[in-house]
TrEMBL record:
Record's keyword terms, sorted: Cell membrane, Membrane, Transmembrane, Transmembrane helix, Transport
Signal peptide: none
Protein name per the record: Peptide/nickel transport system permease protein
Transmembrane segments: 12-35, 90-116, 136-160, 209-233, 253-276
Membrane topology: Multi-pass membrane protein
Main location: membrane
Domain ABC transmembrane type-1, chain residue ranges per copy: 92-276
PROSITE patterns per the UniProt record, alphabetical: ABC_TM1
Any one annotated GO CC term: plasma membrane
Cell compartment(s), UniProt: Cell membrane
GO biological process, one term: transmembrane transport
Phylogenetic placement of the source organism: Bacteria, Pseudomonadati, Pseudomonadota, Betaproteobacteria, Burkholderiales
Keyword Membrane listed: yes
Length: 292
């Protein structure tokens, strides 16, 4: 186990992805201590300031103080850096929650379909039906029906991702189920739970970790799209998507309001994808043989 962990950490892509994600996570967690102010605080007299400007700012309580705006302000006088830093919390939370929930749901469906032949046809037809609907359209529909909260955004993005994980797990289970050691366990009257837990699921961990990184990156991007279109979280909750949506009307005069959150969104998605590529290169022996 230790040797495998060392091999993973030696991969350059894994290290780059982990470092970038750790820095982004620190920005999200420690946002209140990173020279930020309340992200919803606005001061019209400080509207549309350029990056790096220091100006007087009146907060919600009426106190006035000098503050450096490293990323400038938006049209309502809100600190862009504060909104971007707090927006990282939403993006990372949604990405991680969607990845975990979709892996759990997809694994349960995939194992049931791959190991229990009677359930295969019915479950896969349900998964195929969900995959036939574009994920963005499905999420927009659910968000229109439910009250916009972080939980509803997570659920709306998770449901379209479950079939993709389920099909991956099903293919793995169908292959492993025919292996001699599984057939031997069945002939020895080993319980189904033990077979699944000891022989099948351990072989699915590596592909699931890789798939989880891609699901996380996709979820972060979809959440930003939903917020940008105005069907995600409400405007009072800062997310990278609605920050860009607020600034798009003045993009020609003040592009920083769109460029800064867009930059962090791109870096986050890229870091997660790089991490996934590194895990795939390290954990997938078939891929190593093809590229070796």
């Amino acid at each position: 186990m230790m040797a495998k962990q060392s091999k993973i950490l030696k991969n350059t892509s894994v290290r780059i992805g982990l470092v970038a994600l750790i820095l982004l996570l620190c920005m999200a967690v420690f946002a209140p201590w990173l020279y930020t102010i309340e992200p919803t605080a606005m001061d019209p007299s400080s509207a549309n300031l350029l990056p790096g400007v220091t100006a007087e700012f009146s907060d919600l309580s009426g106190d006035t103080f000098d503050h450096l705006f490293p990323m400038g302000t938006d049209s309502l006088g809100r600190d862009t850096w504060s909104r971007v830093a707090y927006g990282a919390r939403i993006s990372l939370t949604v990405g991680l929650c969607v990845a975990v929930l979709s892996l759990i749901g997809g694994t349960l469906c995939g194992v049931a379909a791959g190991y229990f032949r009677r359930l295969d046809n019915a479950l896969m037809r349900v998964m195929d039906s969900l995959m036939a609907i574009p994920g963005i359209l499905f999420a927009i529909t659910l968000m229109a029906l439910w009250r916009p909260t972080v939980a509803t955004v997570v659920i709306a993005i998770t449901i379209p991702e479950i079939p993709r994980v389920a099909r991956l797990v099903r293919s793995i289970v169908l292959t492993i189920r025919e292996e001699p050691y599984v057939e031997a366990a069945v002939s020895l009257a080993t319980s189904t739970i033990n077979i699944l837990w000891r022989h099948i699921l351990p072989n699915a961990i590596a592909p699931l970790l890789v798939q989880g990184t891609y699901v996380c990156a996709s979820a972060i991007l979809v959440e930003a799209i939903l917020s940008f279109l105005g069907v995600g979280l409400p405007p009072e909750i800062p997310t990278w998507g609605n920050i860009m949506a607020d600034g798009r009307t003045q993009f020609n005069q003040f592009p920083q309001t769109v460029l800064f959150p867009g930059f962090f969104l791109a870096i986050t998605v890229l870091a997660v994808n790089i991490l996934g590529d590194g895990l795939r290169d390290t954990l997938d022996p078939k891929f190593n043989k093809r590229t070796g």
